[in-house]
Specification:
By secondary structure, this protein is mainly β. It is 0% helix and 36% strand. It has one domain: Methylamine Dehydrogenase, Chain H (7 Propeller). It has no helices and 12 strands.
Amino acid sequence: MKTTDAGATWTSVPSGLSTATIGLYAVDFASDGLTGYAVGTSGNVTKTTDGGASWTQLTSGVTTALNDVWTADGTTVFVATSAGNLRKSTDGGATWTVVYTGVSYTVQKLEGDGTTFMAAGTAGNVRVSTDGGYHGQLQTPVWQQQMFTGI
């Protein structure tokens, strides 16, 4: 699906992906509006470089669900795993490394601004990193619940 009017209307776009990609959970586009990533079940990561007109399947090295994706520039990409860690690519999704954040829970949501990076998930945990996601300081949220699904 694609929108060109901020979601007022949607049109179907053939993705060219196999049916194994069913179950996408999140999508994020770089600031250029052309490069984007979508993630979902069974470690699925897909990438577009033409604003969503076509998508390419990438290999994440993960077999569990990827709950969220975040990119600012289209080259550095973070994905949140249900296995309790983050994966980071610095080459547009060609290779991935595990990023230590100190989380021992399912990461549900990612957000950042290019310098500061946040990861939130189950058990009311929110961590903030200022070093590219390698270390995360546990935050005390104002409102605690069992699972955060947004930042």
